[in-house]
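Per reviewer request, we include the raw input and output of the structure prediction for the construct analysed in the revised manuscript.
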Amino acid sequence: MDNNLFKNIEQKTGVNMNDVMQLANSLQNANFKDEKTVRSIIKRVSQIANKPVNKQTEDKIVNSIVNGNQNLDFGTIAKMLNKK
């Protein structure tokens, strides 16, 4: 990918694109029916986005994903984080 694009995104968002790419790679083989895995992913996204997630919000996200009511992608998690 274009390094300038990543640098621009990093400057505008403050999010390290290497962290995002590592997270994306880890999602490929993740078991989204495993609560521990989903909690770990939520915590990682929270760290990358520098947006803390309280226990109640984390529980709602986990429940929604583990029970199959919600697909796990960056957009879904971002929307859930913004609802807190």
